[in-house]
Write a structure and sequence with these properties.
12 strands; Rossmann fold; 35% helix; binds adenosine-5'-triphosphate; alpha/beta; single chain; 4-stranded antiparallel sheet; 6-stranded mixed sheet
Protein backbone atom coordinates (compact mmCIF):
# COMPACT_ATOMS: atom_id res chain seq x y z
CA UNK A 1 0.00 0.00 0.00
CA UNK A 2 1.15 3.55 -0.61
CA UNK A 3 -0.18 6.68 1.01
CA UNK A 4 -1.21 9.65 -1.07
CA UNK A 5 -2.28 12.47 1.23
CA UNK A 6 -4.97 11.04 3.50
CA UNK A 7 -5.74 8.14 1.19
CA UNK A 8 -4.13 4.77 1.13
CA UNK A 9 -3.77 3.43 -2.39
CA UNK A 10 -2.91 -0.19 -3.14
CA UNK A 11 -0.32 -1.82 -5.39
CA UNK A 12 -1.45 -4.52 -7.77
CA UNK A 13 0.65 -7.67 -8.13
CA UNK A 14 -0.13 -10.38 -10.63
CA UNK A 15 1.72 -13.72 -10.60
CA UNK A 16 1.47 -16.53 -13.13
CA UNK A 17 -2.04 -15.52 -14.19
CA UNK A 18 -3.59 -17.72 -16.88
CA UNK A 19 -7.20 -17.73 -18.08
CA UNK A 20 -9.00 -20.17 -20.37
CA UNK A 21 -12.43 -19.85 -21.98
CA UNK A 22 -13.32 -23.53 -22.34
CA UNK A 23 -10.12 -25.07 -23.70
CA UNK A 24 -8.95 -21.86 -25.37
CA UNK A 25 -6.29 -19.86 -23.54
CA UNK A 26 -6.97 -16.11 -23.29
CA UNK A 27 -4.17 -15.12 -20.89
CA UNK A 28 -0.90 -17.03 -20.57
CA UNK A 29 1.25 -16.75 -17.46
CA UNK A 30 0.99 -12.98 -16.91
CA UNK A 31 3.33 -11.48 -14.32
CA UNK A 32 3.23 -7.77 -13.61
CA UNK A 33 3.13 -5.18 -10.89
CA UNK A 34 1.52 -1.74 -10.77
CA UNK A 35 2.76 0.55 -8.01
CA UNK A 36 0.34 2.45 -5.80
CA UNK A 37 -0.99 5.56 -7.54
CA UNK A 38 0.36 4.65 -10.99
CA UNK A 39 -1.63 4.58 -14.22
CA UNK A 40 -0.98 1.45 -16.30
CA UNK A 41 -2.16 1.49 -19.92
CA UNK A 42 -2.70 -1.90 -21.55
CA UNK A 43 -2.32 -1.88 -25.31
CA UNK A 44 -2.39 -4.63 -27.90
CA UNK A 45 -4.31 -5.94 -30.88
CA UNK A 46 -7.95 -6.94 -30.74
CA UNK A 47 -8.48 -10.22 -28.89
CA UNK A 48 -5.10 -10.20 -27.09
CA UNK A 49 -6.76 -10.48 -23.67
CA UNK A 50 -6.91 -6.88 -22.40
CA UNK A 51 -10.54 -6.96 -21.25
CA UNK A 52 -10.12 -10.45 -19.85
CA UNK A 53 -7.28 -9.14 -17.70
CA UNK A 54 -9.47 -6.33 -16.28
CA UNK A 55 -12.34 -8.75 -15.65
CA UNK A 56 -10.06 -10.89 -13.48
CA UNK A 57 -9.07 -7.97 -11.26
CA UNK A 58 -12.58 -7.40 -9.88
CA UNK A 59 -13.70 -11.02 -10.34
CA UNK A 60 -16.27 -10.14 -13.01
CA UNK A 61 -14.69 -12.99 -14.97
CA UNK A 62 -16.49 -15.54 -12.82
CA UNK A 63 -19.87 -14.44 -14.18
CA UNK A 64 -18.94 -16.07 -17.48
CA UNK A 65 -19.53 -19.76 -18.02
CA UNK A 66 -16.69 -22.24 -18.58
CA UNK A 67 -13.91 -19.92 -17.45
CA UNK A 68 -10.83 -21.23 -15.67
CA UNK A 69 -8.43 -18.89 -13.89
CA UNK A 70 -5.05 -19.84 -12.41
CA UNK A 71 -2.38 -17.83 -10.65
CA UNK A 72 -2.53 -15.12 -8.04
CA UNK A 73 -3.61 -11.48 -7.98
CA UNK A 74 -3.05 -9.24 -4.98
CA UNK A 75 -4.62 -5.79 -4.74
CA UNK A 76 -3.53 -4.19 -1.49
CA UNK A 77 -4.69 -6.64 1.14
CA UNK A 78 -7.08 -8.51 -1.15
CA UNK A 79 -6.00 -11.93 -2.34
CA UNK A 80 -8.35 -11.49 -5.29
CA UNK A 81 -8.63 -15.08 -6.49
CA UNK A 82 -8.99 -16.58 -3.03
CA UNK A 83 -12.34 -18.39 -2.60
CA UNK A 84 -12.95 -16.61 0.68
CA UNK A 85 -12.45 -13.07 -0.58
CA UNK A 86 -15.38 -10.72 0.10
CA UNK A 87 -16.32 -10.01 -3.53
CA UNK A 88 -18.69 -7.16 -2.65
CA UNK A 89 -15.95 -5.42 -0.69
CA UNK A 90 -13.47 -6.13 -3.48
CA UNK A 91 -15.75 -4.55 -6.10
CA UNK A 92 -16.24 -1.53 -3.85
CA UNK A 93 -12.46 -1.12 -3.70
CA UNK A 94 -11.90 -1.83 -7.39
CA UNK A 95 -14.26 0.35 -9.47
CA UNK A 96 -14.83 -0.20 -13.18
CA UNK A 97 -15.85 2.03 -16.08
CA UNK A 98 -16.86 0.46 -19.39
CA UNK A 99 -16.51 1.31 -23.06
CA UNK A 100 -20.11 2.45 -23.49
CA UNK A 101 -21.52 4.82 -20.89
CA UNK A 102 -24.10 2.77 -18.99
CA UNK A 103 -25.96 5.06 -16.59
CA UNK A 104 -28.91 3.49 -14.80
CA UNK A 105 -32.37 4.60 -16.01
CA UNK A 106 -32.83 7.02 -13.13
CA UNK A 107 -31.93 10.58 -12.20
CA UNK A 108 -28.41 11.97 -12.24
CA UNK A 109 -28.52 12.19 -8.43
CA UNK A 110 -29.77 8.63 -7.98
CA UNK A 111 -27.12 7.24 -10.31
CA UNK A 112 -24.35 8.63 -8.11
CA UNK A 113 -26.20 7.90 -4.84
CA UNK A 114 -26.88 4.29 -5.88
CA UNK A 115 -23.68 2.70 -4.50
CA UNK A 116 -23.54 4.75 -1.27
CA UNK A 117 -27.21 3.84 -0.58
CA UNK A 118 -26.44 0.15 -1.07
CA UNK A 119 -23.55 0.50 1.34
CA UNK A 120 -25.88 1.92 3.96
CA UNK A 121 -25.69 5.71 3.78
CA UNK A 122 -29.18 6.90 4.71
CA UNK A 123 -28.64 10.49 5.82
CA UNK A 124 -29.81 12.77 3.02
CA UNK A 125 -27.23 15.41 3.98
CA UNK A 126 -24.43 12.86 3.70
CA UNK A 127 -25.82 11.51 0.43
CA UNK A 128 -26.00 15.02 -1.05
CA UNK A 129 -22.41 15.68 -0.01
CA UNK A 130 -21.18 12.38 -1.47
CA UNK A 131 -23.02 13.05 -4.74
CA UNK A 132 -21.62 16.58 -5.00
CA UNK A 133 -18.06 15.49 -4.13
CA UNK A 134 -18.16 12.63 -6.64
CA UNK A 135 -19.54 14.83 -9.43
CA UNK A 136 -16.83 17.39 -8.68
CA UNK A 137 -14.11 14.72 -8.80
CA UNK A 138 -15.52 13.55 -12.12
CA UNK A 139 -15.45 17.14 -13.44
CA UNK A 140 -19.20 17.12 -14.10
CA UNK A 141 -20.61 19.15 -11.21
CA UNK A 142 -20.59 22.53 -12.97
CA UNK A 143 -22.59 21.10 -15.88
CA UNK A 144 -25.26 19.31 -13.83
CA UNK A 145 -25.55 21.13 -10.49
CA UNK A 146 -28.94 22.67 -11.39
CA UNK A 147 -30.44 19.51 -12.86
CA UNK A 148 -29.65 16.63 -10.54
CA UNK A 149 -33.27 15.42 -10.65
CA UNK A 150 -33.25 15.04 -14.42
CA UNK A 151 -32.89 11.65 -16.01
CA UNK A 152 -29.28 10.60 -16.70
CA UNK A 153 -30.46 9.85 -20.24
CA UNK A 154 -30.75 13.59 -20.95
CA UNK A 155 -26.95 13.99 -20.75
CA UNK A 156 -24.60 13.82 -23.73
CA UNK A 157 -22.51 10.65 -24.23
CA UNK A 158 -19.40 12.31 -22.79
CA UNK A 159 -21.34 13.63 -19.79
CA UNK A 160 -22.85 10.17 -19.27
CA UNK A 161 -19.37 8.68 -19.19
CA UNK A 162 -18.24 11.22 -16.58
CA UNK A 163 -21.43 10.37 -14.65
CA UNK A 164 -20.40 6.70 -14.73
CA UNK A 165 -16.98 7.73 -13.40
CA UNK A 166 -18.72 9.78 -10.64
CA UNK A 167 -20.86 6.72 -9.84
CA UNK A 168 -17.70 4.59 -9.56
CA UNK A 169 -15.98 7.21 -7.35
CA UNK A 170 -18.99 7.61 -5.03
CA UNK A 171 -18.23 4.36 -3.15
CA UNK A 172 -14.67 5.53 -2.50
CA UNK A 173 -12.69 2.96 -4.49
CA UNK A 174 -8.90 2.77 -4.37
CA UNK A 175 -8.45 1.27 -7.83
CA UNK A 176 -10.13 2.28 -11.09
CA UNK A 177 -10.30 -0.02 -14.10
CA UNK A 178 -11.19 1.77 -17.34
CA UNK A 179 -12.03 -0.43 -20.33
CA UNK A 180 -11.68 1.78 -23.42
CA UNK A 181 -13.50 4.61 -21.63
CA UNK A 182 -13.41 6.98 -24.60
CA UNK A 183 -14.00 4.52 -27.45
CA UNK A 184 -17.57 5.68 -28.03
CA UNK A 185 -16.97 9.40 -27.49
CA UNK A 186 -16.27 12.39 -29.74
CA UNK A 187 -12.79 14.01 -29.53
CA UNK A 188 -13.87 16.84 -27.19
CA UNK A 189 -15.51 14.47 -24.72
CA UNK A 190 -12.54 12.09 -24.99
CA UNK A 191 -10.17 14.95 -24.15
CA UNK A 192 -12.24 15.75 -21.05
CA UNK A 193 -12.08 12.14 -19.85
CA UNK A 194 -8.32 12.09 -20.47
CA UNK A 195 -7.89 15.32 -18.46
CA UNK A 196 -9.94 13.73 -15.72
CA UNK A 197 -7.74 10.62 -15.65
CA UNK A 198 -4.68 12.85 -15.34
CA UNK A 199 -6.36 14.81 -12.49
CA UNK A 200 -7.26 11.61 -10.64
CA UNK A 201 -3.76 10.24 -11.09
CA UNK A 202 -1.96 9.23 -7.90
CA UNK A 203 -5.20 9.34 -5.86
CA UNK A 204 -6.10 5.96 -7.33
CA UNK A 205 -4.16 3.10 -8.85
CA UNK A 206 -5.57 2.94 -12.38
CA UNK A 207 -5.50 0.55 -15.31
CA UNK A 208 -6.79 1.76 -18.64
CA UNK A 209 -7.30 -0.44 -21.68
CA UNK A 210 -7.10 1.61 -24.83
CA UNK A 211 -6.78 1.20 -28.58
CA UNK A 212 -5.64 4.81 -28.80
CA UNK A 213 -1.85 4.84 -28.55
CA UNK A 214 -1.65 8.62 -28.21
CA UNK A 215 -4.05 8.37 -25.32
CA UNK A 216 -1.89 5.70 -23.66
CA UNK A 217 1.14 7.97 -24.12
CA UNK A 218 -0.68 10.99 -22.66
CA UNK A 219 -2.26 9.48 -19.55
CA UNK A 220 -0.14 6.56 -18.37
CA UNK A 221 3.01 6.13 -16.28
CA UNK A 222 3.62 2.57 -17.43
CA UNK A 223 2.51 0.59 -20.47
CA UNK A 224 2.00 -3.14 -20.95
CA UNK A 225 1.85 -4.58 -24.46
CA UNK A 226 -0.21 -7.77 -24.74
CA UNK A 227 -0.29 -10.06 -27.74
CA UNK A 228 -2.19 -13.35 -28.05
CA UNK A 229 -2.69 -13.60 -24.30
CA UNK A 230 0.94 -12.93 -23.44
CA UNK A 231 2.56 -9.94 -21.83
CA UNK A 232 5.24 -9.15 -24.39
CA UNK A 233 6.72 -6.12 -22.66
CA UNK A 234 6.02 -3.66 -19.87
CA UNK A 235 7.90 -0.49 -18.97
CA UNK A 236 7.75 3.22 -18.37
CA UNK A 237 5.56 4.88 -20.95
CA UNK A 238 8.29 7.01 -22.45
CA UNK A 239 10.66 4.05 -22.75
CA UNK A 240 8.05 1.85 -24.41
CA UNK A 241 7.12 4.52 -26.95
CA UNK A 242 10.66 5.67 -27.72
CA UNK A 243 12.76 2.54 -27.29
CA UNK A 244 10.75 -0.67 -26.96
CA UNK A 245 12.91 -3.70 -26.20
CA UNK A 246 10.84 -6.18 -28.16
CA UNK A 247 10.50 -6.22 -31.95
CA UNK A 248 6.78 -7.13 -31.70
CA UNK A 249 6.11 -4.04 -29.59
CA UNK A 250 7.91 -1.84 -32.08
CA UNK A 251 5.98 -3.37 -34.98
CA UNK A 252 2.69 -2.76 -33.16
CA UNK A 253 3.56 0.83 -32.26
CA UNK A 254 4.64 1.66 -35.78
CA UNK A 255 1.63 0.01 -37.37
CA UNK A 256 3.69 -2.76 -39.01
CA UNK A 257 1.73 -5.45 -37.24
CA UNK A 258 0.27 -8.56 -38.77
N1 LIG B 1 -16.98 -14.79 -22.90
C1 LIG B 1 -16.07 -15.35 -23.72
N2 LIG B 1 -16.18 -16.63 -24.13
C2 LIG B 1 -15.26 -17.20 -24.93
N3 LIG B 1 -14.19 -16.55 -25.42
C3 LIG B 1 -14.02 -15.26 -25.06
C4 LIG B 1 -14.94 -14.59 -24.20
N4 LIG B 1 -14.51 -13.31 -24.02
C5 LIG B 1 -13.36 -13.21 -24.74
N5 LIG B 1 -13.07 -14.37 -25.36
C6 LIG B 1 -11.89 -14.63 -26.23
O1 LIG B 1 -10.73 -14.42 -25.44
C7 LIG B 1 -9.74 -13.71 -26.16
C8 LIG B 1 -9.39 -12.41 -25.45
O2 LIG B 1 -10.54 -11.56 -25.49
P1 LIG B 1 -10.56 -10.11 -24.82
O3 LIG B 1 -11.94 -9.57 -24.96
O4 LIG B 1 -9.99 -10.20 -23.45
O5 LIG B 1 -9.54 -9.32 -25.76
P2 LIG B 1 -9.30 -7.76 -25.96
O6 LIG B 1 -7.83 -7.60 -26.10
O7 LIG B 1 -9.96 -7.01 -24.86
O8 LIG B 1 -10.03 -7.49 -27.34
P3 LIG B 1 -10.63 -6.13 -27.96
O9 LIG B 1 -9.47 -5.18 -28.07
O10 LIG B 1 -11.16 -6.54 -29.28
O11 LIG B 1 -11.69 -5.66 -27.00
C9 LIG B 1 -10.30 -13.52 -27.56
O12 LIG B 1 -9.83 -14.55 -28.38
C10 LIG B 1 -11.80 -13.64 -27.35
O13 LIG B 1 -12.42 -14.13 -28.51
Amino acid sequence: MGNVGERSVPDIEVHHLSVWYGHTPALKNINLRVDAGQVLAIIGPSGCGKSTFLRVLNRMIERLALVRVEGSVRIGRFDVLDDHVDVTHLRRTVGMVFQHPNPFPMTIFDNVAYGPRIFGIKSSTQLRKTVEDSLKRAALWDEVRGKLRRSAGTLSGGQQQRLCIARALAVDPQVLLLDEPTASLDPVSSAKIEELIVQLKSQYTMIIVTHNLQQAARVSDVVAFFEQGQLIEMGYTQDIFTAPREKRTEEFLTGRFD
